[in-house]
Amino acid sequence: MTSLEPSVAFATSLRCSLGGGDGRVSELKKDLENQLVLAPLTKGGNYAFRRLCTEFGAKVTVSEMAYARKVGKGDRKERTLFVRSENEGIFGAQIATNNCAEAVSACNYAQENGAKFLDLNCGCPIREVTRRGLGSALMRKPHKLVALVERMVSECSLPVTVKIRTGLEEDADAEKVLELVRDLGHVGASAVTIHGRTAQQRYSGNANWDLISKVSAESGVDVIGNGDILTAYEAKDRLADSGCLAVMTGRGALIKPWLFSEFEKDYTWNPTPMERIGVYRTLVRFMKERFRDDEKGRLRSFEFLRFHMDFFSRYRYFPEEEHRERSKEYPLIQQREKADLGFRDADVPPIEVLLQRPVDTVNLDALLGFLWDSGSDHEATRLFEEEALSLRKQTLLACSAGE
C-alpha cells in the first residue's frame, strides 16, 4: 500500500462517498458532528459517571471497554458495561476483539441495550489487553486490522467506529497513520478516533494534534481527535484548527465533569467548594441508585469513588482570558498534576486546600463518608470544612514543633 496526497476536492468527495447509501452512517455522522465526546474510560466510564456527564450536557458517551468474547458468552460483569442510563443520548459500546463473530455477538447485545454505534478498541496499551492480541496490538498488523473492520462493517447491525493511537513505539509515524485511516475508511468505518499519543507513551507527553490535523485533512475519513482537552476553549480550538468531525475528552472530564456544560454554553465555570461538593454528591447519589444505599452498595461504590476523587482533586481554575493562547502551545492538563496549595497558606480557605490535596495525603474514606451520609450539600461542606480546619491546625502545630 502507498500513501497518496489527495486534493481537497478528492478528500471531500471521498468523505461523502464512504458509507454511501447507509442511512445509519450518515445519521451517526450528524450525531457526532461538532460534539465533545466522552471517551471510553476503564473504571472511570462507569454507568454513574456517564450519567453525571450527561446531566452536564454530554451528548455522546462511550462505554468502558468490554471484551467481546465475554459479552457474547453472557458474562454478567462484562455485559454490565453496556448498560445505558436513561438520560444518555448517543451511546457507543466499545469492544476489544480480534474476531468478527465475537464482535457481531457483542454488537447485537449492545444494540438491544440502546447503543447507537460499536467502537473497536485498537489503542489500549495495557499489557493485560495487548498480550491477548487486542487493543493497540491490533495495530501491529494493519492488513489484518483492516480486514477485521471490513467484516465487522458487513456483518454488524450498528455503524462501526475505530479508536487508534498514533503508533506503537515512541515516535509517531504520520504517513502510516494516514494510510491506516484511509484504509479503514475505504472498508466502511464510520469514523476513526485518534488518540494523539503512541501506545508506548500511554498518557505521557503532549498529544500530537499536528498529526491528528494532518490525517483529518488528508484522509477523506471522519476523524475524532482525542488528547489533552481540559477546558471548553481548548475543545473549541482543537475542533476548529484540526478540522475533525468531533473531539473527545477523557481525563479532562474525570477532573471536571461540568466540562460538557462549559462546551455547550461556551463559558468557564469556577465552582465554589460547596458547588464542587454538590457535584460529587450527585455522583454519590447516582452510585446509590446503581448499587443501592446499603453496606454492600457502599463498599462497591467506594471502589469507584476513590478513583474519581483522585481526579477531582486535580481540578484547577484556568480562566480563558489568561490561559487560552498559552494552552495552544502547552496543554493545560499537563499543568495540573502538582498541588500548589498547603495548609500553611493563610490566604486560601482550608477547605480549598483540602479539595486539592492528593488523595493519599488525606483521610479519603472519611471524606467519602461525608459525601455518602450527609443529607445536604451544606452538611457535607460543613464536615469538609471541619476536617480541613483540623488538618490545618495539625500542620501548624507540626511546623511550630519543628522550628
TrEMBL record:
<dbReference type="GO" id="GO:0102265">
    <property type="term" value="F:tRNA-dihydrouridine47 synthase activity"/>
</dbReference>
<dbReference type="InterPro" id="IPR013785">
    <property type="entry name" value="Aldolase_TIM"/>
</dbReference>
<keyword id="KW-0819">tRNA processing</keyword>
<dbReference type="Pfam" id="PF01207">
    <property type="entry name" value="Dus"/>
</dbReference>
<keyword id="KW-0285">Flavoprotein</keyword>
<dbReference type="InterPro" id="IPR018517">
    <property type="entry name" value="tRNA_hU_synthase_CS"/>
</dbReference>
<feature type="domain" description="DUS-like FMN-binding">
    <location>
        <begin position="38"/>
        <end position="290"/>
    </location>
</feature>
<keyword id="KW-0288">FMN</keyword>
<keyword id="KW-0560">Oxidoreductase</keyword>
<dbReference type="GO" id="GO:0050660">
    <property type="term" value="F:flavin adenine dinucleotide binding"/>
</dbReference>
<comment type="similarity">
    <text>Belongs to the Dus family. Dus3 subfamily.</text>
</comment>
<dbReference type="GO" id="GO:0003723">
    <property type="term" value="F:RNA binding"/>
</dbReference>
<dbReference type="InterPro" id="IPR035587">
    <property type="entry name" value="DUS-like_FMN-bd"/>
</dbReference>
<keyword id="KW-0521">NADP</keyword>
<protein>
    <recommendedName>
        <fullName>tRNA-dihydrouridine(47) synthase [NAD(P)(+)]</fullName>
        <ecNumber>1.3.1.89</ecNumber>
    </recommendedName>
</protein>
